[in-house]
């Protein structure tokens, strides 16, 4: 079952987090932008309120939370009700897919990535953005998960785990950026660097090649 309860109950609190932590949000956007491929027809999986789709010009998204979808639609996004593990999308439909802070909420990350692989055209990319469990902030989130409004049911992953899942799915040519260094949200270093292993927010880009 999709873990949508907190997003249904607290949609405005979700939006306000980005307003309150605008510098962190901007850093996450920049980390994605650094590795963003050119595309004509992109989709975001777990589009939420559209916070990440809008800056990149993505106009289609999948979202199981009705409250989140309502906000995204108010921003001009076409939102399709669905979950990552069973995308209601035809094969080889899109030339780019984005999934940000969603992999920690899916029931089956491998099946989710397999579905993303299926809907992508050959020679297209996916970018997965997430909080690295092994980072300082990731460890704080994991330790305090049960006290968190939004992360109570989340399952955090380390970067190496996500890379293994991408390779198992068939993706290749994986590159990544990182940002948000430290564990105190009020005093984060928001530089964007290549690689992983230090930053809390990771963006991984992977290629679906030709069969």
SS field, number of helical segments: 8
Which overall shape is indicated by the principal axes computed on the Cα atoms? globular
* Beta strands, count: 8
β-strand percent reads 15-25%
Question: What strand order characterises the main sheet?
Answer: 3-2-1-4-5-8-6-7
Could you name the ranges where pLDDT drops below 50 across 5 or more consecutive residues? none
Largest sheet features: 8 strands, mixed
SSE run = HHHEHEHEEHEHHEEE
Taking all Cα atoms into account, the compactness measure Rg is 16 Å
Mean pLDDT: 93
- The end-to-end distance, rounded to whole angstroms, is 32 Å
In summary, what is this structure?
The protein has 211 residues and is of the alpha/beta class. Helices cover 33% and strands 22% of the residues. It is built from 8 helices and 8 strands; from the N terminus they run αααβαβαββαβααβββ.
């Amino acid at each position: 079952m999709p873990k949508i309860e907190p997003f249904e109950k607290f949609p405005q609190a979700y939006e306000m987090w980005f307003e309150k932590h605008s510098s962190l949000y901007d850093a996450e956007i920049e980390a994605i932008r650094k590795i963003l491929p050119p595309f004509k027809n992109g989709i975001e999986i777990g589009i939420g309120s559209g916070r990440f789709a809008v800056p990149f010009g993505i106009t289609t998204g999948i979202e199981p939370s009705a409250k989140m979808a309502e906000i995204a639609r108010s921003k001009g996004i076409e939102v399709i009700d669905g979950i990552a593990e069973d995308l209601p999308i035809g094969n080889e439909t899109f030339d780019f897919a984005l999934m940000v802070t969603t992999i920690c909420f899916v029931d089956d990350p491998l099946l989710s990535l397999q579905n993303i692989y299926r809907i992508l055209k050959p020679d297209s990319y996916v970018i997965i953005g997430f909080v690295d469990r092994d980072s300082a902030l990731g460890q704080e989130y994991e330790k305090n998960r049960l006290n968190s409004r939004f992360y109570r049911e989340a399952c955090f992953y380390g970067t190496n785990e996500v890379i293994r899942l991408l390779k198992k799915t068939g993706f290749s040519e994986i590159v990544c950026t990182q940002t948000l260094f430290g564990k105190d949200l009020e005093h984060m270093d928001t530089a964007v660097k290549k690689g992983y292993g230090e930053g809390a927010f990771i963006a991984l880009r992977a290629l679906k090649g030709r069969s």
